[in-house]
UniProtKB/TrEMBL annotation:
It is a multi-pass membrane protein. The lineage of its organism: Eukaryota, Metazoa, Ecdysozoa, Arthropoda, Hexapoda. The keyword NADP applies. Keywords: Lipid metabolism, Membrane, NADP, Oxidoreductase, Transmembrane, Transmembrane helix. It comes from Anopheles farauti. This is Short-chain dehydrogenase/reductase 3. GO terms for molecular function: all-trans-retinol dehydrogenase (NADP+) activity.
Length: 347
């Protein structure tokens, strides 16, 4: 009995070890397969080269179009009857832009932490241009207050907002180790958060109406580092980055033709006494408020994605970024003479 079971066990084991129809022995990759694998890096490189050629062929006409537009500016869009909301609209640059838009038949919504200034500007616009102008107080660095502002504008019938200009901002001239913490926090909050929260609150309405324009007022200090105001310059770089990212978001969403963006980078603007007092010996004279406002509004109406004031300063700044940092520093020292800007910060 035992021998019979052993025989059956041996037979079962032999059957188990015998290769079945699906148990084929492993073989080395064929020469054809190895050839295809070896071609993969080459095909990747060829694909990249093909795409690069495509970019060049499509990009050259666009480049010449941009150069041509610097000589012959694009036509300005008609904004008569549209509602323009300007943060920091009670004074300075915001006030000057409000006047220019009102002259073109726009209705204004002026938002400012200084409600009295916004009220005065709104009253002047209504009297001088015969358009609607409303004034609101809000801390635009607060998301909750931005939400409440949008609800008030809708409830009062002052909207919907067609052009949003995020202009509110604070300035601080100080090296980073000399920066007052409370002031630095305020500069960061107002200069950066206001752009994000105001855009978040009003963007959905623009998308639904398939019409809108969002403008972010940055600075030349957001293109080229400003050592005399490290925290301030950092916030302006943040604004430029936010606007660039927003532009690309709308483009990949297929919305860039209906909701436009413009990032504004002005040179020093003599908006307040502290700016004028700081600029003791600038190599190039600061812009007046009216000069800056006029060029900014023209750029917005041309629907330019980036507006620099003066225009050639932007071209020069982008050109300088191609060079190594030591070369850029030579430009700062000998052409801009940045070290002469203000003697009080040398110590």
């Amino acid at each position: 009995m035992t021998s019979r079971l052993d025989a059956q066990s041996d037979l079962s084991s032999a059957n188990t070890n015998r290769p079945g129809p699906i148990d084929k022995p492993l073989t080395e990759p064929t020469s054809h397969y190895r050839f295809v694998i070896s071609l993969e890096p080459l095909l990747t490189v060829l694909s990249i080269v093909f795409d690069l050629v495509k970019v060049i062929l499509l990009g050259v006409p666009l480049l010449f179009r941009e150069i041509y537009s610097m000589i012959v500016p694009r036509a300005q869009k008609d904004v008569r009857g549209q509602v323009v909301l300007i943060t920091g609209g009670g004074n300075g640059l915001g006030q000057a832009m409000a006047q220019l838009f009102a002259a073109r038949g726009c209705h204004l919504v002026l938002v400012d932490i200084d409600l009295n200034a916004a009220d005065r500007t709104a009253e002047e616009i209504r009297r001088k241009y015969g358009v609607a102008a409303a004034a609101y107080r809000a801390d635009v660095s607060s998301y909750e207050q931005c939400q409440q502002l949008a609800k008030k504008i809708e409830r009062d019938g002052s909207g919907p907002v067609d052009i949003l200009i995020n202009n509110a901002g604070l300035i601080m001239f100080a090296f980073v180790n000399d920066s007052d913490v409370e002031r630095a926090n305020a500069v960061i909050d107002v200069n950066v958060k206001s752009h994000v929260w105001m855009t978040k609150v009003f963007l959905d309405g623009m998308i639904k109406r398939k019409r809108g324009h969002i403008v972010g007022v940055s600075s030349m200090s957001g293109m080229y580092a400003f050592p005399w105001g490290v925290v301030y310059s950092a916030t302006k770089f943040a604004v430029s980055g936010f606007m660039a990212s927003l532009t690309e978001q709308l483009r990949i969403q297929g919305l860039s033709k209906s909701v436009r963006t413009t990032c504004v980078n002005p040179y020093y603007v003599a908006t307040r006494k502290d700016v004028v007092d700081f600029l003791q010996k600038p190599r190039f004279a600061p812009l007046t408020v009216d000069q800056a406002a006029r060029e900014i509004v023209r750029g917005i109406l041309r629907q330019d994605i980036i507006v620099t004031v003066p225009r050639l300063f932007g071209v020069f700044t982008r050109f300088m970024l191609f060079f190594p940092v030591p070369v850029q520093q030579l430009v700062r020292d000998f052409l801009i003479r940045e070290y002469e800007l203000n003697n009080n910060l040398h110590t």
